[in-house]
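thought: fold this chain, then report.
action: predict
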Amino acid sequence: MLREMFVGKLHRATVSRTEIDYPGSLTVDVELLERAGIPVHGKVQVVNINNGARFETYVIPGEPGEIIVNGAAARLAQAGDRIIIIAYALLSDDEIAQNTPIVVVLDERNRVVAG
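observation:
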């Protein structure tokens, strides 16, 4: 049996800007993605700490410090909002026993402060 498990997250990322006319996705600093173990084009859940909105999308690589909410999801966030970006994976029971999720905590400029 496979179970969907939390495997990595970027905690308290700050939205740099929103792009409503972009055709979807979440642009994230590629180095932050690598640090959290989130693959480019991987599916993520985004939780907006400021307004409680939650949505799912996929990530695309961005420049250092960038966190851009694109497309329709841009209606759910604004520049300066703090968000949590969570990645999940389907794991077997054996893999679950070995899974240690990666948590990367960011400051208001999307610099790593822990993890």
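thought: worth noting. The chain has one domain: 2-109.
final: tokens above.
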